[in-house]
């Protein structure tokens, strides 16, 4: 009988990695807004000047992160996605981008990990919003084992990095790379699975002659990897992202500017809101990203 292995959540791996970095890198400062602050209670006793909780003052937290960055520190900033990106967006724009300094922003909650909290805790527009600002690297890990390598690299650098954690994860990790990993080859088209959407995509395409690409880093977008995949298949591109539908469509179009192609996007609705809250799986079905809905839509598109 095989013993069942208990998996860590992405948020736990994030906290463990930051705690390691606090000990090994004197530049690192950890900023929280109540959310997940309990992970850092013990280490705060050791580094009281580098572990700070701002309560629900997210705008101030981002501006102070910019101040730390200007002073040569490496701020890691964390809370729920809508409170990290949407609420303090002006501070991100001015305090980080306009000052041309870096920080590592790490969110939880994703688009609808726990719909019972309602719309206030849902952040499907986060990546699209950051797309209006230059110079951001965006990581969307699909498994807890992908979090550590991505986060350690982000902390060691000095750029602007957004890491979007989810409470939902794929069954198996994919080795971390800077671009797309080819998981399956086919001829009818290319399906791009971003982060925690991979399991749904693999199940949906099990009987479809498609190339499946996976990435845990969506910005910068791997133009060369997509072009290589399209060279071996029809230029029918399906984009399955765990946030706002069509967020990366413009990147697909830029990658294939000189290649006649078609794009079908999946994600959270752009044109209307979901005003009833069930489970995360209910929302998958509502938005058409459950395996059965994806399989039917992709088949129609390829045919």
UniProtKB/TrEMBL annotation:
SMART domains: Transket_pyr. InterPro entries: PDH/Transketolase (IPR051157), THDP-binding (IPR029061), Transketo_C/PFOR_II (IPR009014), Transketolase-like_Pyr-bd (IPR005475), Transketolase_C (IPR033248). SUPFAM superfamilies: Thiamin diphosphate-binding fold (THDP-binding), TK C-terminal domain-like. Residues 8-174 form the Transketolase-like pyrimidine-binding domain. The keyword Transferase applies. Keywords: Transferase. GO terms for molecular function: magnesium ion binding; transketolase activity. Its EC number is 2.2.1.1. Pfam families: Transket_pyr, Transketolase_C. This is Transketolase.
